[in-house]
TrEMBL record:
Cited SUPFAM superfamilies: Zn-dependent exopeptidases
Gene3D superfamilies in the record: Zn-dependent exopeptidases (3.40.630.40)
Name assigned to this protein: N-acetylmuramoyl-L-alanine amidase
Keyword Hydrolase: yes
PANTHER family found in the cross-reference section: N-ACETYLMURAMOYL-L-ALANINE AMIDASE (PTHR30404), N-ACETYLMURAMOYL-L-ALANINE AMIDASE AMIC (PTHR30404:SF0)
Keywords: Hydrolase
Domain of life: Bacteria
Family annotation (Pfam families): Amidase_3
GO molecular function, one term: N-acetylmuramoyl-L-alanine amidase activity
Length: 241
């Protein structure tokens, strides 16, 4: 199955902003983590953006429709004085879409309620990305950026990982994917089966550019390796000092 994960906002559009946090940064961090978790369930994943890029709502929808995605999952952070988690489908959403949303909502809401945040419920709204996509589409509002406690919770990378895991588990439950996934064994080859679908374009670019050899896609990078890759990039862009 194919899931299109949509990190809200990006580029010149920061989304909601509070103190040092911007919605576009949090949505990207959570969406990338969701993509990683979904790959463990053997789901194919595409992201509407993988960097701080501006992508129109129409382009996000077109990407999902053209790909024939089985699910469109839009990641957002709320604002407006509230607290807690809520989810949305379009008012005209069919029963299958609502079932998928409920499965995801239950898993994610549990992370919030266990930490003392309210479950704000399963809602509906006539939002563009929910209205124009031609597959089940769910929009998730992971807490409120302008609530101090929500903001501190969401800024924690460990929490982001838990939210991503819960999101992926909800999708897996809704689509009958393996209940207890484990990372695939590394093949040691460039572009082997351990390479996540969402990372292929970036990997190919890094190899073509001579920045990385594309090996060991799941291994952690040492600081030395990161320095070397950044130095190669600077040399190619003429910015080496």
């Amino acid at each position: 199955m194919l899931v299109v994960v949509d990190p809200g906002h990006g580029g010149a559009d920061p989304g909601a902003v509070s103190a040092a946090l911007r919605e576009k940064d949090l949505t990207l961090a959570v969406a990338l983590a969701v993509a990683r978790e979904l790959s463990l369930f053997r789901a194919a994943v595409r992201l509407t953006r993988q960097t701080d890029a501006a992508v129109s709502l129409a382009d996000r929808v077109e990407m999902a429709n053209a790909a024939g995605a089985d699910l469109f999952l839009s990641v957002h952070i709320n604002a407006g004085g509230g607290t807690g988690f809520e989810s949305y489908v379009h008012p005209s959403a069919d029963e299958r879409t609502r079932q998928i949303r409920s499965a995801v909502h239950r898993k994610v809401a549990a992370v919030f309620t266990e930490a003392g945040f309210p479950d704000r419920g399963e809602k509906q709204a006539d939002l563009y990305v929910l209205r124009r996509t031609r597959m089940p589409a769910v929009l998730l509002e992971y807490g409120f950026i302008d609530h101090p406690r929500d903001a501190a919770f969401l800024a924690d990378a460990e929490v982001q990982g838990r939210l991503a895991r819960a999101t992926a588990e909800g999708v897996a439950e809704a689509f009958g994917l393996p209940a207890d996934p484990s990372p695939p064994a590394s093949s040691g080859s460039v572009g082997g089966p351990d390479l996540s679908e969402w990372a292929k374009e970036a990997r190919d670019w890094a190899v073509r550019s001579g920045i990385s050899d594309g090996e060991r896609p799941k291994d952690p990078a040492t600081r030395e390796e990161v320095w070397v890759m950044l130095h190669r990039l600077a040399q190619k862009s003429g910015a080496s000092g």
